[in-house]
Amino acid sequence: MPAVSGDTVTVHYTGTLADGTQFDSSEGREPLLFTLGAGDVIPGFDEAVTGLEPGEKTTVTIPSDEAYGPRYDEAVQEVPIDAFGEGAPDIGAVITVIADDSSRMAASVVAISDDLMTVTVDFNHPLAGEELTFEIELVEIVPASA
């Protein structure tokens, strides 16, 4: 019986970028567990699993607008280094920023100015703007009615 919206499924997967670089995989780990149609995974991934049967494999390429969306230049900002307190953060660090409305946003530290006065942070998701290819194997289905 094929997987349908509302079913809980487990899948093994490998994700690669357009240049073939692997960015994630369930290899060597437990399979990914999620409920189809619940918004637990990116829409294109959800759609690729819908209709599969256990043991079935598929390869799908998901455009950025069905994955993590476009990359926005305005989401890259320079902030004064003193906003980080006593020490500068490490390049590559992921920081949490609390907005005026108390919401939390993740940002990656991408650069520190040569004069050590500003830090460049990127609020884009690391995979924003990327076309993603997934090799997916449906391992198990727990029907919604179970």
The whole-angstrom Rg is 19 Å
The number of domains: 2
SS-based class: mainly beta
What pattern of helices and strands is seen along the backbone?
A: EEEHEEEEEE
Textual characterization of the structure:
- This protein has two domains: 8-69 and 127-142, Chitinase A, domain 3 (Roll), CATH 3.10.50; 73-122, Beta Barrel (Thrombin, subunit H).
- 5% of the residues lie in helices and 40% in strands.
- The chain is built from one helix and nine strands.
- A hairpin with a 5-residue loop joins strand 6 (94-98) and strand 7 (104-112).
- The radius of gyration is 19 Å and the shape is elongated.
- The chain starts with 7 loop residues before the first strand and ends with a strand.
- The model has no long low-confidence stretch (mean pLDDT 93).
Keywords:
single chain; mainly beta; Chitinase A, domain 3; Thrombin, subunit H
In a nutshell, what does this entry contain?
The protein has 146 residues and is mainly β.
Layout of secondary structure:
Layout: E1 8-17, E2 22-25, E3 32-35, H1 43-49, E4 57-62, E5 76-80, E6 94-98, E7 104-112, E8 118-122, E9 132-142
Antiparallel strand pairs: 1-2, 1-3, 1-9, 4-9, 5-8, 6-7, 7-8
